[in-house]
Amino acid sequence: MRPSKRAPDELRPVRIERGVSRHAEGSCLVRFGDTEVLCMASLEDKVPGWLRGAGRGWVTAEYGMLPRATGERMRREAASGRQGGRTLEIQRLIGRSLRAVTDLVKLGERQITVDCDVLQADGGTRTAAITGGWVALHECVRWMQARDMVQESPLVDHVAAVSCGIYAGTPVLDLDYPEDSEAGTDANFVITGSGNLVEVQASAEGAPFSEDELLRLLTLARGGVSRLVDLQKMAIA
Q1: Residue numbering of the annotated binding site
Q2: Which residues make up each annotated binding site for phosphate?
């Protein structure tokens, strides 16, 4: 029995609320159970210097956790003068995931930065950030279309992400913190709306896992992402 009493293939309650920022071109508050992430997309009419004159744009992301997003206060990374390795790894993952479903040529020489701030953490913050980040990015593109800045949406597909793991010997979907902290195998899957894989992160915390177990986790993830994409479609409708 999972600590949350959920079935092995059951997501936590997921809520996606768009348009939560008055200033950002696109915004979304996403909740996976007790994990809450605020995603805001900001448009700049320029690209990084290394892309200047290339005729295409860029989508990037930044990620951070509020000091009391967890049970004990964490020191702000700005106070230490540098970002931690985990933060850098997660924000690069978010950026790669969003770029995978964006036609950067159609975006033009513009940059969209998606800021993902964790308000409350209970496992799965990176997967929630990717899922909500896509909605914020979509809203930014919609803002651009309303002002005739782009004729056709540069978004070519949905993208969402979910965690899976082997908890107490059973493959389960969407780990919360009690499961994540005790899982024998922990994995994150980033999958497009059409079912293609963007990224798979999987590691054994104890005994190595088999290929069959990995495929069972992938099956769970596909089902979970399919439901998340449905929720994205409802949010932007």
Answers
A1: 86, 124-126
A2: 86, 124-126
